[in-house]
Design a protein that fits this description.
It is built from 2 helices and 4 strands; from the N terminus they run H-E-E-E-E-H. By secondary structure, the protein is α+β, with helices and mostly antiparallel strands. The strands form 2 sheets. A two-stranded antiparallel ribbon has the order 1-2. The chain has a two-stranded antiparallel sheet with strand order 3-4. The protein folds into 2 domains: 34 residues; 32 residues. A hairpin with a 6-residue loop joins strand 1 and strand 2. The radius of gyration is 27 Å and the shape is rod-shaped. Helices cover 49% and strands 16% of the residues.
Length: 75
């Protein structure tokens, strides 16, 4: 009777560990495929950043308020 209880407990722990590993794997796969958003180029310094973080001034996009104030780089 004792062996049966130990066997059932080992089976329960094994199933729990397998399900936990599969859930962690699925969560990692879901975050890998998440798009970062469209990247745009700062008209002043040329750095690339997500469109959601860019500042707009006129027709151009900038990485900061300071670069938007300075405008496009000349030369």
């Amino acid at each position: 009777m004792g062996r049966l209880i130990v066997l059932v407990l080992l089976l329960i722990v094994a199933v729990w560990l397998i399900r936990r590993a599969l859930r962690a794997s699925a969560a990692r796969d879901a975050t890998k495929g998440a798009p970062a958003g469209e990247l745009v180029r700062c008209a002043h310094c040329g750095v690339h950043l997500p469109r959601a973080e860019a500042r707009s001034s006129g027709d151009a996009l900038y990485c900061s308020d300071e670069h938007a104030r300075l405008g496009p780089r000349q030369g």
